[in-house]
Amino acid sequence: MKNIPPLDLTRQYKEIGEEVNQAVIELLHSGNYVGGNAVKDFEQQFALYTGTYECVSCNSGTDALYLALRALNIGEGDEVITTAFSFIATAEIISLVGATPVFVDITPENLNLDLEQVEKAITARTKAILPVHLFGHPVDMTKIMEIAQSHNLYVIEDCAQGTGAEWAGQKVGSIGHVGCFSFFPTKNLGACGDGGAITTNDRAIAESARILKAHGSRQRYIHETIGINSRLDAIQAVILQIKLRYLDSWNQQRRKVAQQYTLLLQGLKHLQLPQANPQGKAVWNQYTVQVTGGNRENSALASDCYRNEILSQLQAQGVNAMVYYPVPLHLQPVYKGLGYQVGQLPSAEQSAYQVLSLPMFPELTTPEQEQVAYVLKEALEL
Q1: 3-state secondary structure at position 267
Q2: Is this structure's pTM higher than 0.90?
Q3: For a tag on the chain, would you pick the N or C end, based on fewer CB atoms within 10 A?
Q4: What is the SS3 string spanning 236-263?
Q5: Are strands 178-182 and 154-158 parallel, antiparallel or unpaired?
Q6: CA count, 13 A, side-chain hemisphere, 96
Q7: 15-60, pLDDT tens digit by residue?
């Protein structure tokens, strides 16, 4: 059988390689490798794409989250409510600014924040809510904003996996007070290296972020606050400008791949398929199923679980599926001091040992998907 990778960036490069090569060579000849028009042009284009007034580019999605929290003056003594099921960066930056992450459970249908639990977690110390549009599925931003407004809280959207996704006809990253994006190569809009950005309709937030990303300075050698050095390279900016023109068509192709998976996999026992919210427009950074049968222990730290058996069988047959994320954030060793216990956030813990992300990228072919489905079906029937 053919070896099927979880993601194949070489296929995307074949499509746009000539454009990328020309743009990069022109940039190299210009000598303007840091900042300059390339970065400014991308920021303007990305702001226009997301429907926001401002875009501030930076070095990574993690930096985007950090800059957003700092720009909102979130720090020591504050609490930020977020999901227990995401990549560590979501929680890590809350801790890095001195605030405390407050983890809430997820809904097993789409693995996003359980909004009923969000409201219950609000205290006098809560400063913000940080929803994650996980795997490209937008959170119910209507409800999030209603909760935030009623409690005078900021909303910081983690859009790392959701570039181009929409909620109620509006792009993610334009609904909350700040949107945070990653341009890591595996993302829907991926650079050929690292990169990130924040988007906002609040010019004061954008200005604060710009100062913070430049060593706390708006005027050279005059430093108003303690900042960091976080730049989007000019080479990445010109590459992202090209890719941005293709993003909507790539996202549409991802939707077709997701629809095909659903047709091929529906009705299989011990398999829960992802469900897109009809009010949103998902961009399917991942197609993540849940293997629901045969679990021998009810633990988020389960190393010997049915899902892992299925994963091993897939990989043996050339289907390179992945697991995002095997340990929920509230049970990570680094957060042991917060006092969360196994069983406290049951949906996140259960999903951690059930999730399985199948190969997903716009160029994935129908025969490749059929092979994935065949091998998965065979594994589940053993």
Answers
A1: coil
A2: yes
A3: C
A4: HHHHHHHHHHHHHHHHHHHHHHHHHHHH
A5: parallel
A6: 17
A7: 999 999 999 999 999 999 999 999 999 999 999 999 999 999 999 9
